[in-house]
Amino acid sequence: xxxxxxxxxxxxxxxxxxxxxxxxxxxxxxxxxxxxxxxxxxxxxxxxxxxxxxxxxxxxxxxxxxxxxxxxxxxxxxxxxxxxxxxxxxxxxxxxxxxxxxxxxxxxxxxxxx
Amino acid sequence: xxxxxxxxxxxxxxxxxxxxxxxxxxxxxxxxxxxxxxxxxxxxxxxxxxxxxxxxxxxxxxxxxxxxxxxxxxxxxxxxxxxxxxxxxxxxxxxxxxxxxxxxxxxxxxxxxxxx
Lengths: 114, 116
Description:
The structure holds two protein chains of two kinds. Chain A is mainly beta. Helices cover 0% and strands 49% of the residues of chain A. Chain A has strands at 3-6, 11-14, 19-21, 23-26, 32-38, 44-50, 56-59, 62-65, 75-77, 86-93, 103-104, 108-113. In chain A, strands 2, 5, 6, 10, 11 and 12 form a six-stranded mixed β-sheet that branches. In chain A, a hairpin with a 5-residue loop joins strand 5 (32-38) and strand 6. Chain A starts with a strand and ends with a strand. In chain A, 38% of the residues are buried. In chain B, strand 9 and strand 10 (106-107) form a beta hairpin. At the A-B interface, strand 5, strand 6 and strand 11 of A face strand 4, strand 5 and strand 9 of B.
């Protein structure tokens, strides 16, 4: 079945540091890939997405590229801020529709200190 | 973006009682809602898929008689944990997607259930 593996946390960085959170997946066919963010006390929010190989999703300075050859979708940000502290989830959808449930990684907690 | 609410945000109940959790789409019609369960430091695990007007589809290992799901309208789905036990204590999250929606699900803020 489909699965997502992301790096274990927690990750602690100083403000303005470079962030990488690794995510690899196993899926049949051509999944859509997502990064969700969960701020303290809030629900999951879609951060970015990519629906086909070589697509790059980007939002709020974060970006991730759909790499089919390495089955990866690593999240990066060049300069993190304290406000980026949250839990980040990599996820995939096995179909081309929002009516399909998502398969999530375990989440990576990021703490950014001033 | 679209908003999904959950109520209550936290609930504590005694073992053997039942608890109902509501999931509402506030500004769109949700043809499909999903219920997930999240254990501490674990991923979200899909419990069931609920389509408006039809019976929910449960994932393997999820007891449908214990976790009753109703999706009676396009804006409301409920999850009832019947005869709750301490091992049912968890964080329950719903998500919703609208008609014709591609890719994106909108998530509620979650409900923390503690069974004593």
